[in-house]
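Quick one, T. Sequence first:
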Amino acid sequence: MARYTGAKDRLSRREGFDLYGAGPKLTRLAVPPGVHGPKGIRMLSQYGRQLREKQKVKRLYGVLERQFRRYVEEALKTKGNTGETLLSLLERRLDNVVFRLGFAVSRPSARQLVSHRHVLVNGKRVNTPSYQVRAGEAISLSGKALAIPSVKETLGEKDRKIPGWLKRKAAVGAVIREPKMEDIQEPILVQDIVEYYSR
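C-alpha cells:
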C-alpha cells in the first residue's frame, strides 16, 4: 500500500492550500517552496493550471499518480458527469469517509486508523483505505480506537460539520447517498482535471 511519506508543508505551499489539515501550524502558505520564494511565482499556462489542479486533488486525497489515473479512467467509462463521478469515487474512499464523519482530525490520521484495523464497515474490520463505501453501509470504530486520546477529542467537537451525504450518531456513521459536487467543501476545479486527462 503505497503512500507519500515526504515533506508535507512544502506541498501545501506549492498548491497555496492547506492539504493536510495542519491549520495554524502551517506557516508561509502564500510563499511557494524553494530557495527563490516569492520570485518563483509566475503566470501559468492552461496546461500548467490543469496540472496544478490535478496535483492538488491527488495530494488532498492522499492518492498516488497510478491510482488517481485509474479513478479518472473509471469515471470516464461511466455515464453522466465525469467530474462528479470522479469526486464521488474519491469522496467514498474509506479513509476520506472516516475523516468526513469526524472520527479523525485529518485524512492522513484517518488513513492510519483504517490501516491499523480500527475501522469497521457493517461490523467487519476493513484495513484498506481505498475501499469504496456504498450507500447504506455503516462505519464505526473499534473499542481500542475509542480509547485513543486524539479520537476522543475529535469525537467531542460539537461544531464539526458533517456533509449531507453522511449521517453520524456518537461513534457510528452511515452513508445515506452518493456525494454530489455541492457536498465537496474544498475549492476543486474538477473540469481542469478532466481536461488534463482528455488531452
